[in-house]
Every structure is written in structure tokens, then in C-alpha cells.
Amino acid sequence: MAARPRKREYRHLPDYLFFDKDRGVYKFTLVTGKKKNIGKDRAMAIAIAREYNLRMRPELSPSVDNLIRESGGVTGEAKPFADHVDHIMARAVEDERPSQSTLDDWNNDALRVKEFFTSIPACNIELEHVNAYIKKYHAGASANVQNRKVSFLKKLFSYAVDESLMLDNPATRKKMRRTEEKKRQRLSLEHFMAIRRAAAPWLRTAMDLALQTTHARLEVSRIRYSIREPKNGICGCVWLEQPEDGICGTLYIHRQKVQKKEASHVAIPIGDELKRIIDESRDNVASPFVVHRIPDRQVKRSKEVSHPTQVAPDYLSRSFSSLRDELGLCDHLAMDERPTFHEIRALAAHLFNSQGIDPQGRMAHSDAKSTKIYTRNHIDWVIVPHGEIKTG
User: Could you say which of 25, 29, 60, 231 has the lowest number of CB atoms within 10 Å?
Assistant: First the structure.
């Protein structure tokens, strides 16, 4: 509905300002509809009305700021934040070099961010938008998940601030949710042995490697029979021509979860037990990976594998959990409390510790003791003491 034309005597005044002749004062209508007495001084009343309209009714008040905003801003800050997500993501990936699984999560979250902020200028984003985003996409998610999604927004916004697209980072003002204590129960040696006895050879090999190295599914699935030299992102064995003091070589592991920390590069001596596991894994399948199998059927290859015979980390976890449940070992526990393949890592740490061997260096923890560091290929590798867990 079109607004009614103003009376002739008020046309020289700013919108929503008029003069009350009976009382001799100027009155102004706020955006709430309430009328406010702003005094008898004409010049002052006009100045106040113009400034108020400029701030509260910007669509009515042409200004340099509004024209700049309509043009997209000086640095693009008035353009929808969705327009900036792709190049911000490119910067984040270049700077942080996330693992493939983390990058997949980032890409999924980036699609949601572009959808949500498709019409919201970068410079206008406030905490209310962060709350609305979490409510729209992750309302029913756990505290851990919601906190991760807020952290992702915080990451993107930090780059936006750096590029003068935002004055501050509103996601930093979001209160993180309190996370629950871990429900997952520890894996006992008894249950480990029961699952191991029933496991297929490839799964048994994976379990044995996890126990001896203290490493998780991703690193275990990447261990190669032989590598020429240790490198970033590679897990594999470098063999000696002849054993020395019972050591046949070195297993190099670069743990991806803490890949940027110095302690993420671990060099584990290959003694009798590790050599036995590796030797027993060899079969008539031509595979460069110690943990390997021929797929039951042709399926789309996981992004985490580089060879048809390599076992994907997710498949490794699912197979372990399925066998655990098939044996009925943890039927008394809720599903989210049952120990997973990852718990072999904690079991190994416990067993090494009980033997008087500090497990932290082996686990790629930065506060490791009894370790020494040497440099190879310009990478610092933490050499851990030789140690074995006897399960027989």
C-alpha cells in the first residue's frame, strides 16, 4: 500500500517529522510507531530526524555508505558471505593441509554455509546468525558435533576478518556446549584375544599391528611392507640388510591426527614380534600393504585407500565391531558404550605401561619420555625404545 502524501507544510521536513502547532513542538515517529517530542528547535529537530532515519530507516536515506554497500563494499564486505566461502576455503586448505577425511567434512560444511549465508552480507553477520545456523543444521546433534561446527564457522570468519570482510569474529562469542564424559568402555585383553581368535587373517593382522604399535585404524591401514625412505604422510618399513641386536628394521608412522606436531613422526624398531606379524600377513595376494584383502565385490573405492587391496579405515572399524557383536562379548552394554577398534590403542598403552615401557612416544604424544629424536629427510623422527607385548 502506497504511503499517503505528506501535507504541504511538512514536505520540507525529514520523513516522520512533523510540527505540532497546538503545542509548538516538533514530534517524530519512531520505527516502533511511538511518537516522540524532540523539542522546539527546528534545526535540531531536523538534524535528529535525519540521523535517526539514516540509521534506523537506511532504505529511505540515500548516503555514501548506502551506495558503497549497494556496490558490494570497499573490499567486498557488503557482498553475501556465500560469495567469499570458496576462496576462504582455498586459503584454509592451503594453510592447514587437512587430512582427506577432515577435508570431506569441511567441504560438506562449506556447502551448508553457502546455502545459509547466500543473502547475508559478510559485514552484517552477528552472533544471532551463528545461533540460527547451528539451530537449522545441527539442532539435534551432540555437544561435540555442535562445538565442531561452531569451530568451523570460527575458522572461516577468522579469514574473513583477516581480509577486512568482517570487523570481528562473532563465532568467538558463541559459548561452547559442555561435552559429556566419554561413554566408551575400555577393551579388555580377554575380549581382544577372543575377537582375535575369531577374526579373519587380515583383521587379525590389523589388530596385532595396532597392539604392538599403539596406533589407530588410519595408520594401521596405511602400513606398507617396504618403503625406500620415510616421508610425510607415509607409513611403512625400512629394513636392515642384516638384523642388529635383534632389530630387523624400522617402522615409520606419520600420525595424521596430530600431523603438524613434531611428535607425529614416530620410528618404531622392528623386533621379533612385529616381524612375525608382518611375515605371517604375507599370502598369495599381491599387495604393498600389510593389512590387505581382496574385496568381496566391486564397490566404489574409499578416498582413504590408494590400492584395490588396501583396507579402508571405516571398513576395518565396522568389521571389528561386527565381530565383537557377533561373539556377544558386550551385549550387556549400550551400543555407544561398546569398545571399538580404536580402544586397542588404549589397551596397548596400558600393557606397555605395565611392562615399564613409556607408551607416549610410540603413540605420537608430544609429552613423550625416554625418546630421542633424529632428523632424516629434514623431518624429525621420534625413535621409541624397542618394546613388545606378548599375548601368547
Answer: 60
